[in-house]
Write a structure and sequence with these properties.
globular; mainly alpha; 11 helices; two-stranded antiparallel ribbon
Length: 317
């Protein structure tokens, strides 16, 4: 076995500590996401049933309209430098557009699920994703990130300009094509397994939660954007619950038939190299960079360890 380098070991140690800290926040460990359970390193985790996940959704409601972005507007325009605003926009843009994309794409996945309990939970996730879009839209609008952008459509159009090529490949090609295939053939369970793997394990699990926790931690340390941090914590908690569904579903399917295990592995092999590129900001000119206080190595280590814990629970080392 190849020995780990000191930076790699340090990055993994920081990841483990970060995951432990996240699990201590109210409602996060309750989601049963294996990434927040140390026992998942041994392939063991407490997974909720589809009904239990639905009931948890009922208990974890929140409203975007209750957030007050007054201080956030002051912070953005008076305390955060133009250069830092430029760098922050990549992470923010990926989430705003990403939430819009996954909201649009989840319907065929929900309809293709074979069990009513699965479809009921995914119906709640569609509502969650729409709420996340509205959260970002309120933040962009009330904090004033764009001059002259008067509606959601215009803010989304201008936000897309900040994304890199890998983002388009992952969301507009790979995800969209898989969902279109599933919409045409909802009885194709292998296609469903591939879509859930891409949506819940890679897009939400490896990408979204990695960026969320680094952005939240950085703003908390800098004491900036308090309403955004509060709302984004709620978004992150929702995402952990969604991922817990994905792990439950893929665990069940992998145990049912080896062809579904192969479908998970096939999707991982195709999507992970593209997802790796999404994590890298388009303005980064070097192999290593710092964003929100984390290096490229630490960012990728966090995503990898979260994914590894979940795959071990599914039964795929």
């Amino acid at each position: 076995m190849e020995a780990k380098t000191d930076p790699q070991a340090a990055a993994e140690a920081r990841t483990a500590q970060t995951l432990s800290d996240i699990a201590q926040q109210e409602g996060f460990e309750e989601t049963s996401d294996p990434a927040l359970q140390e026992s998942a390193d041994r392939g063991k985790a407490k997974l909720l049933s589809y009904k239990e996940l639905y009931l948890l959704w009922e208990r974890q409601h929140w409203a975007t309209q209750e957030l007050d972005f007054t201080q956030d507007r002051i912070d953005w325009h008076e305390r955060i430098s133009p250069e830092e605003r430029f760098q922050r926009m990549y992470g923010l843009s990926g989430f705003f557009i990403g939430e819009q994309r996954v909201t649009d794409e989840l319907g065929p996945i929900m309809r293709a699920c074979p069990l009513e309990e699965q479809r009921i939970f995914l119906s709640t996730q569609i509502a969650d994703e729409a709420r996340h879009v509205r959260f970002f839209d309120r933040f962009y609008s009330e904090v004033g990130l764009y001059e002259g952008a008067d509606d959601l459509a215009e803010r989304l159009r201008r936000t897309e300009e900040n994304l890199n090529e890998s983002f388009g490949q992952l969301f507009d090609d790979l995800l969209h094509n898989r969902v279109d295939r599933l919409a045409a053939e909802p009885e194709d369970i292998e296609a469903l397994v591939e879509a859930v793997t891409l949506y819940h394990m890679i897009i939400e699990g490896a990408l979204a939660l990695t960026g969320q926790h680094f952005i939240i931690e950085y703003n908390t340390e800098q004491n900036t954007l308090p309403a955004f941090v509060k709302g984004f914590n709620n978004v992150a908690r929702d995402e952990h619950r969604h991922i817990a569904f994905g792990v439950r579903f893929l665990t069940d399917m992998a145990a049912e038939d080896d062809k579904y295990r192969q479908a998970i592995q096939r999707m991982m092999a195709e999507a992970l190299p593209i997802a790796d590129g999404v994590l890298d900001p388009p303005w980064a000119e070097e192999d290593d960079w710092d964003l929100f206080g984390y290096s490229r190595a630490e960012t990728h280590a966090f995503a990898a360890q979260c994914l590894t814990r979940r795959l071990k629970v599914i039964g795929l080392a």
